[in-house]
Structures are given as structure tokens and as C-alpha cells.
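If your schedule permits, I should be very grateful for your opinion on a structural question. Thank you for your consideration; the sequence and its C-alpha cells are set out here:

===
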Amino acid sequence: MQLASPLNERQIAVLRWIHEGCPEGRWNDFTYKTVAIALQSRRLVSVSKRGGRWKATIEQAGLHYLEHGDFPRGHFPKQRHHRRRVTAYRPRAVFLSAGQYANAAVPLPPEPACDEQTSSTPPIRPARALLDEVLAAGGEIRRESKDGPRQYSSLVSAINRYKMAPEGKRLVLESGGSWNKCVIRLEDGPRWLTTPVREVVDAPRIDRWHPALRALREAKMLSTSQTAEQRILRMVQAVAIEAEARGHPIAAQPQRYPYHHQQSEPAQLEIKVRDHRYLVAVYQKFRIAPPPPRYGQARKRPPPQAVEPLGIAIRVPGTNRSPYLLESWADSNALRRRVEDAVPLLFHRMERHADREDARREADRRAQIEHQRIREEAERLAEIQHAENVRAETLRSQHAAWREASQLREFLDAMTATVDGMSAGAGRHAAVEWRDWCRRYVNDTADPLGKPLMMPTIRRPTWEERIALENAFVHKLEQEKARNQ
């Protein structure tokens, strides 16, 4: 989707609504504002938020589009961009001795000139098309690709890097629930409440240091030069002040150095966002450069280590007491970016992660409550069904006993006829005695109708019966819940 492509029905409806003076009660949600921003990017309307009040007015090009169904001629003039090649900043490898290592300076990426364009030109057309599609969809789209989120990560990064999204907004790329699905969402960008990090780092002096940095200022950073140490301390100072301004408790992390690695300075601060704990580590990055060749000369001793300082990095490592979160940013010579510019993303990511975890916990809590409710309902229904099963079982057993008693009476009738035909004597007396006992047994024991009729006593179910009934009702209730949703 390009800027010159025709408007869809949703955009035309919002454009006509703005032309009518924005009457109230037309829209049920806030997505019309994102559509208005998309129309503003095409110079059809003007959107204002002055005084905290949202207002939109139609431009002449918007009136022309409503009358003719097309943009005015020459509305999108072609501009020729003159590219000026800029040599990328490349730090040189420096061979340092043990005494010179402590004073190694960290090269800062040069500031980009206003009239210069870096060698990494952003993909304007695909990125703009993706942004317009997100705006037209109301701020969120879902995509499915065999490459997963990797197909859109470069476009989302370009949109955020070159600030192509509306003011105060940025695109976020998230997983869509599986490896081949992703969600591209327009969200509020990071905000900074206190003094910008660059001003804190570049200030001549710090009047008042945060109390949590007292032990850190007195400690010695093993893998950091003196010049970089001041920059790191000031960045940690800015992070601590911003955390307090946002209402997040902070605490200094104890500096332990067993099994220390040069590229992973221990975390300096612990920030708690509600009940989520995050560690923040700011450290200096180095790279071991290969030594220069020694043509025709034998090596009598190992060459000195070539240490190339790359800049400062900041990371949020995972912890055992909070859900896993790992984010990192660093100075980038290719992008001409200092890590200070990425510090606002630190709080943005931590707060968004805390919100997601809270939402996940709330969803788990509700799911647990719903599962417990379904389980209790299944137990109640299983108890009722077990009583019905016992009554049905008693009915079938009585019916079987009655049929058996009926057959036994037929047999007794035949037995009586045989006994009546016998002559008097000891044999007939014994047969009569046996017939009388059989008749008493059939009438008193075998025939259930010869006993008092009443509701049977419900026995306790066995473990197998109870589990089978409860699981069956749980499955049935879950299916009914899924159909109703």
C-alpha cells in the first residue's frame, strides 16, 4: 500500500465525518483517530491535540477527493534525493600495556549531520506500506509467514529508527502464539520524565549523586577504563533518577567478582516494577584484535594483547526471582547511535513486560478459579449421577431376580403336579417337605416383590467410578463453555 493508492471504505467514512464537522456519537471506539492520522500523512486532513482536545479539519485535497474520488493532480510530487556517501566511523585497534589499559578512552559514535544520509538507506517504500496498513487497520495487524517474525523485524526497526510512525507512537513486533505467526501493533512510544540521558552524561559535573551509587562510585570496575567509568556512572545515575520519578524502588547490587568475565560487568542496579525484579547492567565492550604480522621475525614472547574499545552497552539480564527477560543495547557505529538514546526503551520494555506478566498472572488466576468451579460442579454432578447409577443398578438386579422367581414358580407348579401324583409313603413326605421349602424361598427370598419396596441405600463410589464420572463431566462442561464463547 502506497500513499497514492485509493482510500478504502473506512478511510472515506472518516474523511466524510471530518468534513461534516466531527459530530459526536458516530464511532464506538477510538480507531477513527488512527485512521485520521493515516489521512493526515496523505495531507488530506489536519489533526490537532492542542490544549488536550482532539480536533480534525479537512484540507482542500480532502474536499477534492470527496468530490472526484481521486487525489488532486500533483498532490504527490516526485522528489529526487541526492545521496551523499559518508565514510563509516571505524575505531582503530590500539595495543595497550597494563598501565595504559586503565586510561583507555571509549570512542563515541559521531553525531550524524542534518544534511547527510547514512550508507544504510531505510527501505522507505515497504516500511511506509506496512505503516499505512497498520494505521488503516486500527493499530494492529496479524501476519503469518514461514519465516516467522524475522520477515517483518527489519521493516519495524526501520520505522522506529527513522521515526516514521505518528508522533509519540512506535511499532512493536510480537509473537502471535506460534512460530509462524506475528502481531504488529502500534503503541505509545517510550517517555522520559527527568533530564535526558545525554545531558546527564555530557554535563560538566553532577551536583548530587544518587545514594544508591555510593558503593558503586567507591568500587573499582575491573573491565572498564577510567574514561568509560565516568560515562557508565552517569548513565546509572540517570537510570536511578528516572526510576524514582516513575515510582519504581531501586537498590544497589553488591559487586562480586568471582569468575568475572571482561564482557559482562555485574549488574549495578535492581529496579522493582510492582512485584517484578529487574537487574540493570551498564558495562564497556571490548574486542580482541589480532596482532600485526611480524614478517621475517621470530616471536620470542607472546605479543601484547590488542584491545579495541567498542563503546558502552546496557543490558537487562534474567533473574531467578522474576520471569526471564533479556534485553541489550549498545553503541552502534553503523547506525550512528549512542546507547544513551536507547535508555528510554529500558523502562518501556520493563514496564511492558511487567504489564504482560501481570496480565498473564491474572489470566492464570481466573483460569484456575474457572477450573476449580468446573471441578466442583463436576463433583456435584458426579455425585448425583452415581446415585442414579446405583438406583438403576438396583432396578436391574430386582428385575433379574423377579424373572428368576417367575421361572422358579413355573418349576414349583410342575413340582407340585409331580408330588400330587406320588403315592403315600416316605418318598412323598420328603418331596412335600422339599416343595414347601422351595416355595418359602421363592416367596420370601428370591422374589423382590415379596419384600418391602423402598429407595435403595446409596453406597460410596469406588475410586475408579468417582474419577471416571468427574472427568466425564469436566470434559462435558468445558465443551459447553467453549460453545458458548
Observations:
- Residues 197-288+303-337 form one domain.
- The chain has four domains: 9-68, 94-110+121-188, 197-288+303-337, 371-484.
- The chain has twelve helices and eleven strands.
